[in-house]
From TrEMBL:
Superkingdom of origin: Bacteria
Record bears the keyword DNA-binding: yes
SUPFAM superfamilies listed in its UniProt record: GntR ligand-binding domain-like, Winged helix' DNA-binding domain
Compositionally biased tracts (Basic and acidic residues): 210-224
Protein name: GntR family transcriptional regulator
Lineage, top ranks: Bacteria, Bacillati, Actinomycetota, Actinomycetes, Kitasatosporales
InterPro entries per record: GntR_C (IPR011711), TF_FadR/GntR_C (IPR008920), Tscrpt_reg_HTH_GntR (IPR000524), WH-like_DNA-bd_sf (IPR036388), WH_DNA-bd_sf (IPR036390)
Length: 234
């Protein structure tokens, strides 16, 4: 059975984001195909997609390599997010379904509960699901895709302290959902803009200094696994 290129793409992207492949490191089709248990065809397609997304670059004499974003490029992503997330929330207030509201309210309840318990790992996942669902509620596939790509790249470039002011963060999420439920696009927009601006302060660049690249390389994981087309995250 041929593994879809998008599943291979998801697996490679996840490994780039989690640090399995260091910035600047080569990504050879043969080794990737062996790692994920697929042929070179879906790997080649996946690399083209990841290059378009900015995770991979093609270098002369080296081939495909993991991109090395600058600090300015990383800062630009946060700025773009602060522009797009409020737009998504405003559209969600106009286009959301009852199913979207049910999921958003459920995530807020779980987030507030986990925040009281100090379960930071759960908070990280719940926060991601909240913003993904809010983007989907916008009813705009193009905007949703852009926001999803932004979240992937920001997770790659930044460490986020989700435990800092987590109770306040989930109170803000709850207020956003209330505005979306009432169909108040302008309030949803302004609340989301303020939330995104405050959340930016919890972001810290992952990039090691040039002299630390060697130590960073030693920490790169070299686990082997095959693609699980059911369990892959999208």
């Amino acid at each position: 059975m041929r593994i879809p290129a998008h599943s291979v793409c998801t697996a490679i992207r996840d490994d780039i984001v989690s640090g399995v492949y260091e910035r600047g490191g080569r990504l050879t089709e043969e080794l990737l195909a062996r790692r994920y248990g697929v042929s070179r065809v879906p790997v080649r397609e996946a690399l083209r997609t990841l290059e378009a997304e900015g995770f991979v670059v093609t270098r002369r004499h080296a081939g495909a390599c993991v991109a090395e974003p600058t600090e300015q490029e990383a800062a630009d992503l946060l700025e773009v997010r602060m522009l797009l997330e409020p737009l998504g929330a405003a559209r969600a207030a106009q286009r959301r379904t009852e199913a979207h509201l049910k999921v958003l309210r459920g995530l807020v309840r779980l987030g507030q509960e986990r925040s009281r318990r100090g379960q930071s790992e759960d908070l990280r996942s719940l926060g991601g699901w909240f913003h993904e669902t809010l983007a989907q509620a916008s009813g705009s596939p193009g905007l949703t895709a852009l926001l999803t790509q932004l979240r992937h790249k920001i997770a790659w470039m930044y460490v986020v302290d989700v435990s800092a002011a987590s109770a306040e963060s989930w109170a803000e999420h709850a207020a956003i959902v209330d505005a979306v439920a009432r169909g108040d696009a302008e309030r949803a927009r302004s609340l989301t803009a303020a939330h995104a601006e405050r959340a930016t302060a919890a972001h810290r660049l992952r990039f090691p200094a040039r002299g630390e690249r060697g130590r960073d390389r030693d920490r790169v994981r070299d686990s082997q696994h095959a693609v699980n087309t059911v369990g892959l995250r999208h």
